[in-house]
Amino acid sequence: MTSNIRHIADLAIVDLNGRIVLGQETALLRNTIRDLIGCGKTNILLNMREVPYIDSSGIGELISAFVAAQRAGGTLKLFGLTRRVREVLQIVKLLTVLEIFESEEAALATFTRGESRAIELTARAG
Predict the structure, then answer these.
(1) CB 79, CB 107: distance < 8 Å
(2) Segment 110-117 mean pLDDT
(3) Nearest Cα residue to 85 out of 76, 96, 75, 95
(4) Quick one: which of 18, 86, 106, 114 could link to 81 by a disulfide (CB 3.0–4.6 Å)?
(5) Half-sphere exposure of 87 (CA within 13 A, CB side)
(6) What fold characterizes domain 2-125?
(7) What pTM did the predictor assign?
(8) What residue spans define the domains of the chain?
């Protein structure tokens, strides 16, 4: 698996390519998310268009990434799931936990609204 990171404001978009399975692939995902959060990028969007398969270890990493982003005050969302990956996430009931979108544009729109609310709440608290 490979990953490419793009940035839009305080949002990181991670383009994943390849299978997310036990081994180097899950380690790459874990380290990518950990590095982003460590740099203050807590709003993360995973592009799953080029991920043909995910195993139980990959699912575990998605859950860990989701929890890590939330603990850091951000969120993790996914878009572009292949049919097979969507079926796996549906079987393990993650479609009800993770925010999943068909397109990058649809996902970006939710971050924009969320960022506006976060800024508004911060302004009120200060």
Answers:
(1) yes
(2) 58
(3) 95
(4) 86
(5) 5
(6) Transcription Regulator spoIIAA (3.30.750)
(7) 0.86
(8) 2-125
